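Work through what follows:
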Amino acid sequence: MTFNIIGQSITNPNWNGSGTRLNWHDSVTMPQTPNGSMILAYWNLATQNNDGTLSLTSGGPPQFLDAPAMPLMPSTLVQNYQTNSLTLTNLSANKDTPIQVAAFGPGIPGQTPRKLTVGSSPLQLSFLQTAQGNAPPNYGQLVFTNNTNNLCIMAVIGGPNQSSGNNAYLFALNYPGPPNPPGYTSVTSGNTLTYQFYWTTSVYVANMSSSVSSSVAVSMISL
């Protein structure tokens, strides 16, 4: 009988959440997570109909996450890991099932978001890029725009915690699927989306699109 140790083949022991391809039994470790909401995004990259499995270990027994074959959208998990280390391992049954992983959140060590300024020209965020800035002192609005037909997934972290204990929001542009996908605040079949808020915190934005060509222009304005 053969046993495989979770996290045995560490490909990056100082992972900062950047987009990383995990081949079969590969792992990455984030030595210290932020104390606040962090979004884990993961995509099954298999070219055939192979279901994937990702294990997540952070301060306790592992969680086993399903990575569906040929996904329309990235799978996501929002949690506060409270500065514990985090290890991800590709435990898929079929060896030909690579999984791409990325993590987003303010305060991730080694991650440097671009500056998002109220009233400035739209900031173009390409695949897996992030931005952060201070919310306006009154009501504000985020505007997301994409000039293609590619599905675009945007994440926002800011404001007070919701009943779940997290303050992360997910949005989709050029969305072709069924209405009200679970976990998403708002989706649209068009290429422009707005979100209104009243926060006294900073605003963190990330482009979580699964396509490298799905860049999105982001504006933050004062209302």
In short: DSSP finds no helices and 19 strands in the chain.
